[in-house]
Amino acid sequence: MPNNSSATVTHRTMPLDARRAVRGGIFGNYVDQFDIFLPVIALAPAAAHLFGPENLASNAGLIFVATLLGRPLGAAIFGPIADRIGRAATTQVALIGIAVTTLLIALVPGHTVLGSGTLLTVVALRFVGGIFLGGEYTSAIPLAMEWSLPKRRGLVSGLIMWMSPWANASIAGLVFVLLSVLNTEQYNAWGWRTPFLLGALLAFGMLAYYRSRVADSPIWKQSAKRTNPLKDVFIGEHRRALWQVFLLMSGLWLFTYMAIPTLTSELALDGRLDAKAISFILMCATAASAVFMAACGHLSTFTGRRRFFIGFGLLGAILAPLAFLGVFSAGSTSGVVVLVVALQIVTVSGYGPVGAYLVERFPAAVRSSGYGVGYSLSIVLPALYPYYLPPLQDLLGRHEAVAMLLVLAGVLVAAGGLSGPETNRSRTLL
Fold it and tell me: Are 162 and 294 in contact (CB under 8 A)?
């Protein structure tokens, strides 16, 4: 499905170098997202064997936090490098780091060999891997956007962003197959390593593609290089753009954490559905959100990015909490499916235009720095929801607290769109 869509976008509408860069951005983001979701999905069934049966939840949290901290740092490191020496070369370095760290995790001995050293090794590798992950999308996505035709930039953005749900679904499907054909001992011993080996191979494959096929855009080549693009973004002339993007992206990330992991845990606690039913429902919602994500990216070309985010944020602030609360009052499984699908459509589909909007907010000289930091730094506060959601639930109620945060997320997205200018979506990037 993604193959056909990307071919439709690029066939006979762009020069060869542009088509290659766009395909690299689309499938490179798949590799990036595949690696991000690996520990969450593939390690969970083998966690007790790998890390020991004690404190499994906190151990999983450490791995998540390590990646979380690595990504903004990677954006801050690689963004200025991409702005100064080129996006194609920076992407290649980042892909090498992703491939090697993912491969090393596949080779880590279990708890019976290293004891607590297994957890420490995985955490360290995920932190380093997070740095390279932050570098990959900081360089590859702006590169793809710079090569894109203005009239196709929104759609290309949507197709890049929709790779996140497809990567999530791919890993879930692979782990499901492995658990179906292997017994517990086999999965604990080597089955969980298979997705990591595949992730490393995918990264090496994209590295070969970028080395042989993808070149820097004329837009970057012709831009005046800045001595310290990160400084220009944080405290220089582009600081207002950064913090406006930070506001908007914080809303989108808050939407994500409430509509996916929080919803999943609440469905499990609700007890009306078994694990298989929940997996099926989330699979349907993921597929729907992917399609709508691509559509939203293209829609923003006609509405304007600013107007899109204002409208999407306001719509999400109204519909997302209603859909979430409706999930837990629905009288049938089919009703739950419809409401979960609706929830994901009015929350995570908003990522569709992000790739186009963020590159349009920053000029070529600081584009990777602005894109990477704005996208990555905004992850942190929403991702800390395990610390502030429980007190809110004690105060407001389990489901009501989540509904309130969904309202807040929509308001942040709308405010972020409102506080920024309408970007130039009809002309070539500068």
Answer: yes
Domain-located, residue 220 = no
Q: Could you tell me the two tokens for 86?
A: 């080129």
Q: Are 48 and 64 contacting, i.e. CB atoms less than 8 angstroms apart?
A: no
Residue 299, classed as helix, strand or coil, is: helix
Clarify whether residues 164 and 16 are in a common domain.
yes
Q: What separation in angstroms does the CA of 184 have from each of 47, 53, 275, 279?
A: 12, 15, 17, 20
386 confidence band (pLDDT: 50, 70, 90): confident
Output the DSSP codes for 147-178.
HS-GGGHHHHHHHHHTHHHHHHHHHHHHHHHH
Within-domain flag for 430:
no
| Nearest-angstrom CA–CA distance, 99 and 44 | 21
In tens, the pLDDT along 223-280 reads: 989 989 999 999 999 999 999 999 999 999 999 999 988 898 888 788 888 767 887 8
* Whole-prediction pTM: 0.88
Domain annotation covers residue 429: no
Residue at which a domain ends, from 180, 215, 250: 215
